[in-house]
Design a protein that fits this description.
two-stranded antiparallel sheet, 14 helices, 70% helix
């Protein structure tokens, strides 16, 4: 119980720091970040995408438990629905911080652009949030004072959960796919413009989402209760491993056509992916591969520490993947001018204005080495703090409810 209160305090502290710096950002403007015209999406957008992926795990576990009647996973369905809801809230907060002024979201609601993938992303995210809320309500109803110990309430929970699972699973897939379409439909960004992007996004969602469930379960069930749940955790580990395997395969299939085509555009992109940002791409792939091997070996079923370690590796890989979506795309500037020199025509990248006039800094650039500023990093603590706070608060209240019921 002490650990849960510690997590509650940590979550509250991160939220307080994040809120304070978000207010500072609202007052001072986005200039306090390192986002500029050449690099308009950064840490906030990466975090938004990360929590979209991570939110998949709870609903996936919920759906698998009730659609296929996997009874050993049902005790974790309530926690899974809460984790998914917390991550959806965190993703919404992350995108709000990226808007600069939060009230700008009203323009999307009042003047929707139905041809924009951003609009449909908001719609699907909102619907998915509703599914998560309904799942949480269905799961906690039998624990309320009115229904405590009522077998009829438990039977209704199972029936309603199974009915909702038919919606939750496709919504989880749709949310990851539609969100990634923001990237895939951008014809001018070769790193994004691929049919593999939505499919890979679903694979990352399965892996990262199940990884956070394994990590939270490893931290909450306790050392003494761990052996009783080995089979459940092995099943969850296998699901995460399959997601990682699919992600590694899709990543490989993204690189092969670029190498095969051998065009000036593909060579430039490969240099960015494997050269300039090769360290980040390598980190993403290596962490995913190591976690996959651990999960497939079922070591997670025998050790809490190994499970937590593999879960952390998967989450770090997923976050690296989200940031890796941004760096090559924004540094392969699509505006260029054909220049003939020595009988050979080359494409010269047209400089883009940074939008900020500062002494000692370039006003026009052909590439931009974005790195989050300290205020950005501080603001970004808010969504992470929210997830910790919501999950810890649920665990504390759930423990109290169990104690009263006993």
């Amino acid at each position: 119980m002490k650990k849960k209160y510690t997590a509650l305090a940590v979550g509250a502290l991160l939220c307080a720091v994040g809120l304070a710096f978000w207010l500072y950002q609202i007052l001072q403007g986005m200039v306090i970040t390192d986002l500029r015209n050449p690099f308009s999406w950064g840490l906030y957008m990466g975090t938004f995408e990360f929590f979209i992926s991570v939110s998949s795990g709870g609903m996936l576990l919920f759906a698998v438990a009730y659609l296929w009647r996997v009874e050993k996973l049902m005790p974790f369905a309530k926690l899974g629905s809460v984790v998914s809801l917390a991550c959806v809230i965190a993703s919404g907060v992350a995108i709000m911080t990226d808007l600069g002024q939060p009230l700008r979201v009203l323009k999307m609601l009042l003047f929707p652009q139905f041809g924009s993938p951003l609009f449909w992303d908001v719609v699907v995210l909102g619907l998915y949030a509703v599914v998560c809320v309904v799942a949480v309500v269905i799961q906690i109803l039998p624990d309320t004072k009115k229904h405590k110990g009522d077998r009829k309430a438990l039977a209704q929970r199972d029936a309603r959960s199974r009915a909702l699972a038919f919606v939750a699973l496709p919504m989880m897939v749709l949310m990851n796919a539609v969100t990634s379409l923001m990237f895939a439909v951008q014809n001018t960004r070769e790193w994004w413009n691929s049919a593999l992007v939505p499919v890979d996004s679903v694979a990352v969602g399965v892996a990262a989402g199940m990884a956070i469930m394994l990590l939270i379960c490893a931290l909450t069930v306790g050392r003494e209760n761990w052996p009783r749940h080995v089979d459940e955790f092995i099943l969850m580990a296998k699901i995460a491993a399959v997601g990682l395997l699919a992600h590694l395969f899709f990543s490989f299939m993204e690189i092969v056509p670029l190498q095969w085509s051998n065009t000036p555009e593909s060579r430039e992109l490969l240099e960015l992916v494997l050269g300039r940002y090769g360290w980040l791409y390598t980190l993403e792939m290596v962490l995913a591969a190591v976690a996959m091997v651990i999960f497939f070996l079922s070591l997670s079923g025998h050790s809490r520490r190994v499970t937590a370690f593999a879960g952390i590796l998967t989450l770090l890989s997923a976050f690296s993947h989200r940031m890796m979506q941004l760096y090559p795309a924004f540094n392969a500037i699509p505006m260029n001018i054909p220049v003939t020199a020595g009988g050979e025509t080359i494409h010269w990248t047209f400089p883009i204005a940074t939008g900020v006039l500062e002494e000692g800094k370039d006003l026009f650039v052909r590439s931009y080495d974005y790195f989050p500023s300290l205020p950005e990093l501080a603001v970004n603590l808010l969504p992470f703090g929210l997830v910790i706070l919501v999950v810890a608060l649920f665990l504390v209240l759930d423990k109290r409810a169990e104690a009263k019921g006993a």
